Amino acid sequence: MNVAPMLNLILRRATILDNTSPYNGQTMDIWMEGDMIRKIGRDLPMPDGATEYTASGLHVSKGWIDMQCVIGEPGFESCETLQSASEAAIAGGFTTLCMLPVTHPRIDNRAQVEFIFRRNLSLPVHILPYGALTVQCEGKDMAELLDMADAGIRAFTDGKSSIENPKLLELILQYASQHDLLVVHHSDTPALTRQAQMHEGINSTALGLKGFPAIAEMMAVERDLHLLTYAGGRLHIPLVSSKETVETIRRAKASGQKVSCGVASQYLLFTDLALQTFDPMYKVNPPYRTDEDRMELIDGIADGTIDIICSDHTPVDDEHKIHELAHADFGITNLETAFATARTATSSYIDISTLIESLTSHPASLLGIQQPSIAEGQRADITLFQPDEPWQYNADSSHSLSHNSPFNGFLFTGKPLGVICKSKLHLS
Q: Whole-prediction pTM value?
């Protein structure tokens, strides 16, 4: 990882993709000094003592935000530390990571929140922890939401554990609505998906594997939307995977409900056919579904039904991943490949500006983050990338401590080059 102080830097011939910038869509030079953008223009003179950076097809945007990321520290440092996740984020173009509270101990109280915020001060990117919705993420008792909010948390989740008790989720929504906190809730009906390995359908039947029925996701979303209507508040569904779920959320948005949703980039590329080789690297939760589902996810991004694209980065060590499919843990590493996966899967359907908004302004709005615009006098928090550059991923050179990636040797379109964050240029 090449890291240089970002004290006096000029980016040459960078195409700016930022719908809040007066230079949106223009190819300009950008001079930054300290942590501020000092000047934007064409053919800027070289400032005294400045360094210069350029690349063919260079594009810049506001720093990318990942709303769904597992980091092992504290408790599971063998899978991922805050430092290794930060380095993987840089390689993937992210300046902000939202980490799930599924650490050990769980992030379900003020002390754990403050621990992450203290560690964040020494990291090259921004790490924002979610607070847990329930104590220990067990779905039994509401966690200390207000105390964590007072420590700086604005969004809460139990990760991929669903709250089965509707009364408890109702109370959480009511409580959160009084303080404009975002409730992020995984959509699953556990009684229908226990011991499931892949999407329930023709392929699961042919392979003899227990499946996740799409109705388990849709039923959970329908229930949560009814509770949202009754209790109020803001609800974010972090990972949608099925056509029926997208259609349900589209109708809810049209009726004015305060619901948002996201998709992990790998669901835009893979289908349940990936499991035909029984490769555990394709075992994820929710599962990859049919090509019809995949195309509906892409349509959902295009029409605004799906608000954000995330990585769902889930590092798993070899001990828990390299097994027969039934015994392998769910999840893939995807911080370094999230943008490239989304760009490769959607370049024929979604313009690059729409894709970038799903990584920047949309998650920032949901989380209440004030992202600086790419404009003179603004703080520099910027991602550098080449939207049409072909490149091949090598999982062995990953910055993550875990290597459970299905993308080893995969040829992508769209390459992150690095970030400008916390007054420094960090190149991949």
A: 0.97
